[in-house]
What we know:
Blueprint: H1 3-72, H2 86-99, H3 110-230, E1 244-249, E2 255-258, E3 271-275, E4 283-292, E5 297-302, E6 316-318, E7 328-333, H4 342-351, E8 354-356, E9 366-369, E10 373-375, E11 381-386, H5 392-400, E12 403-406, H6 407-413
Amino acid sequence: xxxxxxxxxRVGIVWVIAAGxxxxxxxxxxFLANSDxxxxxxxxxxxxxxxxxxxxxxxxxxxxxRQISEAVGWRDATVIGSKTDIEAxxxxxxxxxxxxxxxxxxxxxxxxxxxxxxxxxNKQKDEITALKNDVKVxxxxxxxxxxxxxxxxxxxxxxxxxxxxxxxxxxDAAQSRIDDLEARVTQLxxxxxxxxxxxxxxxxxxxxxxxxxxxxxxxFRTRLASLGQSLTLPKSDTSAAADGSVLAVSDTLPIGxxxxxxxxxxxxGMRFDVKTGGTNSRFKCKAEITKVEPDVAxxxxxxxxxxxxxxxxxxILINPLFDPTGERNAVLVGRFDAAYxxxxxxxxxADIGIxxxxxxxxxxxxxxxGSELWTDEDGEPLEEAIQxxxxxxxxxxxxxxxxxxxxxxxxxxxxxxxx
Length: 419
């Protein structure tokens, strides 16, 4: 049963008891009246008065109970006149003891419990206030810490950003430096390899040059030995260097006879310079072979230098390519297609004892030089002519001391007999 139901039941019992009491009082008064109406009428009146007084007291008590119940609670507020449930009050008091440890078992009523409850409440209120203050202080400290942390975080972020930027820049610079160093190392490695290769090449070139010099020296020695056997001193204007001399001169015609014939390899068309003998030799004219006999030859004189200084017997004959005894070798270089073609030139040189070689070697005596070349070795045409002096064989001939004979000199001293 809840507190409101129990309150209503208690009010009903009180009314029943009150009615019973009133009934008993009425019966008593009735009995007294019957036995002694007079006596008891006064008593009845007094009793009525007393009843009314009791009823008034009862009503006042009920009103007070209602006020107390309204003040105390633990009643059914939906029922008019309901009273406080004492058991509920006791149960609540027991619950308060459990909640507030300051309320001991010796506290039997709400009046004694309230001061303790108020004190505990105030204490808790003070504690809550102190806690709130602590919370506010903590919140302030937290806010300050958050603000400081925000500043620190912002500063840290800026510093981290700066450090990252610096680190990135440093990393980029370091990587760039590393790349530069690696490139430099690679370059130096390549240079070292190139230098090593160049050093090997240089050593090889030195060795090759040394061998070439040794070979060249051997060639010179061989050539000197070869030339030593067939050496002919350069033709001079002295009588000792002359190839021959004039035996006779016609008084009426520009002809004469010389002491050279077919046995001396003289052929028709060969020409000699006629000079005076002695140390102060001078040019007089040209003498061309017109008729050859075994020991003498007929010559025709031309290009007389001085008509008051005619040719006389005893004048000497000089031809730079003429050698009446020894075998000589020559190499042709350049173009031969004008006065002499190559075939005719070969025949002419063979007639005077000069062998044409296919290439230059240590036995070569003459390098006969023709005109400029307009084709290469394969016969292909060239945009610009090449001078024979630009060819390697020309420089090699100079290095070997081979006598260079321009084709013009050949034309001056020899005439090709065309068939």
